[in-house]
Design a protein that fits this description.
hpI Integrase, Chain A; mainly alpha; single chain; 175 residues
Length: 175
């Protein structure tokens, strides 16, 4: 898989960003100073600008990929330049992302009987939210990470599995 798409999928998985947010990133939105790593997301779905914090322990692959992309650029990119662009220099399209995703799923054996991927790139966002909840992060933190304006959107990620409920109840009854 081409490096730009590998990094796109890594960012989707490790940050929980929306596809449109990742595709609109410009080099001026990227901060890679040690201890301050973040992405500035402009024009997100809910109209609010936010910082997506890239903690070095939470997103090491994303940080390595961003640093590598900057080095591979061959020069310091201008702030207004798109982080991800097509061979023609235009913004990467949703169709291109979905095409690469389908190829990745085919390689991994994750296509359904009709030849479509069993999972969508958007499910990487859901996976990030669910993982944060499973790690014990407060719903308000997950809301901020995912850029939800309404906490009810975030609560969908907090659906507990039966084994999680059982383990929590059992831990309460032990002396």
């Amino acid at each position: 898989m081409d490096q730009p798409y590998r990094l796109i999928f890594t960012l989707l998985r490790e940050t929980g960003m929306r596809i449109g947010e990742v595709l609109e990133l410009r080099w001026g939105d990227v901060t890679l100073d040690p201890g301050r790593e973040a992405l500035r997301v402009r024009e997100p779905k809910n109209g609010v600008e936010r910082a997506v914090v890239l903690g070095p322990t939470a997103t090491p692959r994303a940080l390595r990929g961003l640093r590598s992309a900057r080095r591979a650029h061959g020069r310091t990119p201008a702030d207004f330049e798109l982080l991800f662009h097509s061979n023609r220099g235009t913004r990467v399209s949703y169709d291109a992302v979905h095409y690469q995703w389908t190829k990745l799923c085919a390689t991994a054996g994750l296509l359904n009987a009709s030849g479509s991927p069993r999972y969508t790139p958007h499910q990487l966002r859901h996976t990030r939210g669910s993982d944060l909840i499973a790690q014990g992060q407060r719903v308000e933190i997950v809301q901020r990470v995912l850029g939800h304006r309404d906490i009810r959107s975030t609560l969908g990620y907090a659906e507990l599995q039966e084994d999680q409920v059982r383990a929590a109840l059992e831990s309460r009854v032990r002396p």
